[in-house]
């Protein structure tokens, strides 16, 4: 099945057959594919949890207002945004980028490219994601509006 066929075929399932067990390996593979999704600056500020314990599924189904899809699901995957992980993730992407540059960039360009990435992930990302009790958010919003005034 190609992508177009898959898009035409897929639909929202509202009731699951409890007698048809899921293949855990297939679910795992789907999650591995989901992890390939692009994200802003490759920060991947998300986590997902594969919920298989019936008592936890029942609680989540309650949070889903008892919708039949959740009530009849034998597994639920919960996607969570993790803004708080920005330092670790910025560090990981920086390490990845350093390796990438060393492997693929012409030698004479490597030092500058690495410096650029260090600035981006070492300074800009922490500035953009840090909260400082909401103070930085207000400052960032004002800064973005100020910059917007000078853009066509
Ligand atoms: C972000 C999002 C939230 C949704 N929430 C619900 C939901 O709470 N309950 C539900 O039955 N379907 C939900 N749906 C499914 C949509 O109703 C469904 O995709 C749409 O009606 C089109 O139907 P199809 O997916 O079968 O083509 C949601 C879909 C999206 C993308």
Could you walk me through the main structural features you see in this protein, from its secondary elements to its overall organization?
With 152 residues, the chain is mainly alpha-helical. The protein has 7 helices and 2 strands. It has 2 domains: 3-81, NADH Oxidase (3-Layer(aba) Sandwich); 87-149, no CATH class. The chain has helices at 3-9, 24-34, 54-63, 68-72, 86-104, 107-129, 135-149; strands at 46-51, 76-81. It is extended. The model has no long low-confidence stretch (mean pLDDT 93). Flavin mononucleotide (FMN) binds at residues 11-12, 14, 67, 69. The site of flavin mononucleotide has 5 residues, from loops.
Form type: extended
Name the average pLDDT. 93
Structural class by SSE content: mainly alpha
Main beta sheet: 2 strands, antiparallel
- Please give the alpha-carbon distance between the first and last residues: 45 Å
C-alpha-based Rg, rounded: 21 Å
Level-2 CATH architecture of the largest domain: 3-Layer(aba) Sandwich
Number of domains: 2
């Amino acid at each position: 099945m190609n992508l177009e066929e898959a898009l035409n075929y897929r639909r929202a399932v509202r009731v699951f057959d409890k007698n048809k067990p899921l293949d855990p390996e297939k679910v795992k593979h789907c999650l591995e594919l989901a992890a390939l999704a692009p994200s802003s600056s490759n920060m991947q500020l998300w986590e997902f949890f594969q919920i298989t314990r019936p008592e936890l599924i029942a609680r989540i189904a309650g949070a889903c207002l008892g919708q039949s899809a959740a009530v009849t699901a034998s597994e639920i995957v919960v996607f969570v945004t993790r803004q708080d992980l920005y330092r670790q993730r910025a560090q990981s992407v920086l390490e990845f980028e350093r390796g990438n540059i060393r492997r693929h960039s012409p030698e004479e360009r490597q030092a500058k490219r690495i410096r650029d990435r260090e600035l981006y992930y070492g300074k800009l990302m922490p500035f953009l994601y840090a909260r400082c009790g909401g103070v930085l958010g207000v400052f960032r919003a004002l800064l973005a509006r100020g910059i917007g005034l000078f853009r066509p």
